[in-house]
Design a protein that fits this description.
Blueprint (H helix, E strand, L loop, with lengths): L1 H32 L4 H37 L1
Length: 75
């Protein structure tokens, strides 16, 4: 289970870093060209939003499963 925690943490750090870098690049492009590629922005944030959602789902499911195991041992 520790391996999954480390992998999920790395994926979330990577996602956050990429979102920050992408946002900065889009601001620079907007300042230079006065326009932004809307389809690219929607696709990018859609993909990374989905990845964050999957990580949250995995984390929540893992916590619930761990709670069920603890109840089974006690009860």
């Amino acid at each position: 289970m520790k391996k999954l925690d480390i992998t999920t943490d790395k994926a979330l750090v990577f996602s956050a870093t990429m979102i920050i870098v992408f946002t900065i690049v889009m601001v620079v492009l907007f300042c230079k060209y006065q326009t932004v590629p809307d389809a690219l922005i929607v696709g990018f944030f859609g993909a990374f939003g989905l990845e964050g959602g999957y990580c949250a789902f995995i984390h929540k499911t893992k916590k619930e499963h761990k709670g069920v195991q603890d109840d089974d041992v006690v009860g």
